[in-house]
Amino acid sequence: MAVLQTTRLTLRPCRPDDRDDFIALERDPEVMRFLNGGHAVDRARADPSATFLMPEGTEPHVWTARRTTGGAFVGWFCLWPEGEALAELGYRLRREDWGQGLASEGALALVGWGFEHGGYDRIVATTMAVNRGSRRVMEKVGMRYTRTDHIDYPDPIAGSEQGDVWYEMTRGEWRGR
């Protein structure tokens, strides 16, 4: 994995010393709202079958995002392999860094890396239909909406009745944009 540089962010492979920052994200109810209904994650009691990623700092497909100037922690991004030529984009940012275009900036860098150097032919991303902020990031990156899935979750959270939306982009679409 490469270190990726954008105008305002440095994305580097995560390390164990990032773990405390990752945990702080999971303790913010607003950050977790569309993942588990806004409950702070207690890692000692975390469900091992949780459907969302809880990085430890050792994952090979997670990049830690820090501000290029000053090095302040912003969040993390991942490009998780789902097959030989398919990866899923994910991201989680501190609430203080929302609304500044940083999620789009980091996601754009990672998607570009995935197509140009990661060997992926297709990159997908998913979120709850009601998560307008995350959907906007996917659209800014150039991903297109492909479907909405309706899943019966054992413990549904507010908005889950509207489904999970899927976005995707192919390498050809990336190059032709």
Write the layout of secondary structure elements.
Layout: E1 4-5, E2 9-13, H1 19-26, H2 29-36, E3 62-67, E4 73-81, E5 86-93, H3 102-116, E6 122-128, H4 132-141, E7 144-149, E8 164-170, H5 171-176
Parallel strand pairs: 5-6
Antiparallel strand pairs: 1-2, 2-3, 3-4, 4-5, 6-8, 7-8
Helix pairs in contact: 3-4
Structure description:
With 177 residues, the chain is α+β, with helices and mostly antiparallel strands. The chain has one domain: Gcn5-related N-acetyltransferase (GNAT) (Aminopeptidase, 3-Layer(aba) Sandwich), CATH 3.40.630. The chain is 27% helix and 28% strand. The protein contains 5 helices and 8 strands; from the N terminus they run ββααβββαβαββα. The chain has an 8-stranded mixed beta sheet, sandwiched between helices. Helix 3 packs across helix 4. The longest helix has 15 residues. It is globular. The two termini are 25 Å apart. The model has no long low-confidence stretch (mean pLDDT 89).
